[in-house]
Write a structure and sequence with these properties.
The complex is a heterodimer of chains A (496) and B (110). Chain A is an alpha/beta fold and 496 residues long. Chain A has 21 helices and 16 strands. Chain A is 43% helix and 13% strand. In chain A, helix 20 packs across helix 21. With 110 residues, chain B is an all-alpha fold. In chain B, helix 2 packs antiparallel against helix 3 and helix 2 runs antiparallel to helix 5. Classes of the chains: A alpha/beta (496), B mainly alpha (110).
Chain lengths: 496, 110
Amino acid sequence: MPNEYNGRLLIVDDDRQTCAFWKLALSEAGFLVDLAHNLDEMKDFVSRYSIDAVLLDLNLGHENGLDGLPYLVSKSPLSKVFVLTAHASLETAIWALQNGATGYITKDTAPDEIAAQIKKHTQVPDPIPPDMSGGEFARVGMIGNSKAFQELCQRLQQLKNVDSTILLLGESGTGKEVIARSLHKISNRSTERFEAINCAAIPENLLESELFGHKRGAFTDAKVDRKGILELCSTGTLLFDEIGDMPLSLQAKLLRVLQERVVTPVGSATPIKIQTRVIAATHRDLIEEVQSGRFREDLYYRLSVVPLYIPPLRHRKEDIPLLVESFINEFNQRFNRVITMPADSVMRRLIAYDWPGNIRELRNAIERAVVLTQNDHIRVEDLFQHLHLPNNTPKKNSGLSQQQNQANTQAISSPAVESSKSTPTGSGSGLEVDIDEKIFQLPLTEAKQAFEKIYLESLLNDTGGNISETSKRAGRYRADIYRLLERYDLHVDEFR
Amino acid sequence: MAVTENEVIFSLYKDQPIYRDLLQDFVSCLDERVIKSRAAFENESWKDLASLMHQLRGAAATYGYPALAEIAGSVEIASGQAAVPTESLAVYIEEIISTCKKIEAGMELT
């Protein structure tokens, strides 16, 4: 195993032997390599881990790898995507680069050359000098100048070199991972490894091995010794995202790790000392989780040594113009566009809206607008298309109960954006469309999301909100179902 | 019987010990890939053949066998055409089989 660490890589290719070769070659070059053989597996990895680069095969058997590109660009904006193919095709290369890919690699390229190309794009910038003034946070990706933002930066300054556990609290989409990453980048650990793990998206049986590592033979698939992420980040920083969703059995083990600063790999009796800086994040009310018995009280107190509240975007609206400018620049570069800043009237609408999905929703709206607009400026219709609820037609064949249909029809008949003249005021994050007609007018990603939500509602309705049964029928893990519930703002109690 | 140089094909990575086990695995699975491809050809399942050849093309290029990648690429393109040239394909398939044999012979010598 090489000493250097160059980042976490995901290879998406349907040929297992090709994957095995790249895994070995790129692990030798200092990358931590994961493999996915289709787009669903790719999406699972992207939801679980912070991935520095993705090698995406063009031809995935019955799937087109390029169909996964918009998902990666949208859900994992920090990942560099390299399209991988058996042969060079100029047309596809241009399409891929215009749609957010960083590079294009043919499979006959020597491994060293591929590693060099990936490293060139994923190298961590030099650590920021400690005496840097106001621009320090902007340089690590935090944008804003509101009072709430400045207070947050002040707290981060105080905490940057403190090794105490930090608990980031805030609504979904407020940028908890960006803040954790920024904290790492300005800290005295900045040259070391940063990893993020999504506790809600990893099945319980895999999470233990991911965190603590395992010895060869510890379980059926453990063919070699593997270090856990806590050990790999021993001198760096590890973010436990969605800590509130960690299974209770693992909470006890994590508590021991935080107290004793040692990990014991699965199947081993030898503890290993670690110095990992732990940051935890959740959108849940952990005190409520403790009271309901879903979260250990002792772990809560251990994690919340330094709690840090990340304000929702509606409490820092002064930052919206800066964020919009930053996102437009980012997507202009990515999609090779020259979209200008929105007109004052459009900006006022952006500021008036409450952004229940916070910065993530704003970012997605800007991305969609940059991609969709036919001109060099952004229109209100492009920005708020995800809230556009176009007609009052009752759903057909959606499999929803009368009560559900009624609820949806009510949502449809009170659209958040009725026309470009109105001010958006909606607060829901779901997509409500007529599955027969309007779904075909949406971009593929949004059409899939719209269908996914309706599908999930239908299953929950049929199962009376039984998560185990729903996950069984959907052929997905329970954690996946919970993740979808959160994504579409669905509450299981409403189906019981 | 002695094997001449023209009858063997080596991987571009044959001198790198870390790839040795993987190369052996790849070569030992060539037979299986050939059987599946031949079956697809005989059943005139052109879509499956194109898909199998695409995988072989990528894997062969990855494992350092450009000659095999090139022929597999030709089969992939031919089997994707509207009017599939079956006679040419038959020749290509034979060529793939003989190339795989040369690769297996090369593996035995390394």
